[in-house]
Write a structure and sequence with these properties.
The chain is α+β, with helices and mostly antiparallel strands and 188 residues long. It has an 8-stranded antiparallel barrel. The protein is elongated, with a radius of gyration of 20 Å. Mean pLDDT is 85; it is low at 164-174. The protein is 16% helix and 49% strand. The longest helix is centred in the N-terminal third of the chain and has 19 residues, at 2-20. The protein has a single domain, classed as Beta Barrel (Lipocalin), CATH 2.40.128.110.
Length: 188
């Protein structure tokens, strides 16, 4: 009888936990990440795909999660010349930038979520690029069943040095901004 009571108590605890916290897989085919990198003479834009991920919801509100980015999927969408486009994408995949052969994925793990309003939250977590991890925070907005966010990433913190004024002097108009933007739309 004591064993039955313990089993029922454990079942009750587990069912109440699952009622409050739900792990929702991110629909990678319906999600989108657009990157923008700026330099003195202009900017470039492209897309990068999610490999997989999930968001944790408690009582319908974001409380955690993780998503993995497929660095091999990086594309450029603003250069129409196929040769220049391929050259830029190849350079972004090289060791000068993201070293995708050695680091095929990047990831973000949510460590804290603070509610700001019904549809807006402050997300804090750990971003890992090229094997280097940094804590970052940004605002996210609930959109339908998913979330959108614009994240400013300081590439110099992840040892992405090419054309960076943080590492090299006298770059002149060849300097590339250390901050790149990720516009993220996650569907669950």
């Amino acid at each position: 009888m004591k064993t039955v009571k313990l089993a029922l108590a454990a079942l009750l605890v587990l069912s109440s936990v699952t009622t409050y916290a739900q792990k929702k897989e991110i629909k990678t085919e319906d999600s989108k990440i657009v990157w923008t990198g700026k330099k003195i003479a202009g900017s470039h834009t492209g897309e990068i795909e999610l490999k997989d991920g999930y968001l944790v919801l408690e009582k319908g509100k974001l409380s955690g999660g993780k998503f993995v980015i497929d660095m091999n999927s990086i594309t450029n969408t603003d250069l129409e010349d196929e040769g220049y486009n391929a050259k830029l994408v190849g350079h972004l995949k090289s060791d000068d930038f993201f070293g995708v052969e050695k680091y095929p994925t990047s990831e973000f793990v949510i460590t804290k979520v603070s509610e700001q309003s019904d549809d807006k939250v402050k997300v804090s977590g750990t971003l890992t690029i090229k094997g280097k991890s940094e804590d970052i925070s940004f605002d996210a907005v609930k959109k339908g069943k998913g979330y959108t966010a614009q994240i400013e990433v300081d590439r110099s913190k992840f040892d992405v040095r090419y054309g960076s004024g943080s590492f090299f002097d006298n770059l002149g108009d060849k300097a590339i901004d250390d901050i790149f933007i990720l516009d993220i739309d996650l569907a669950i």
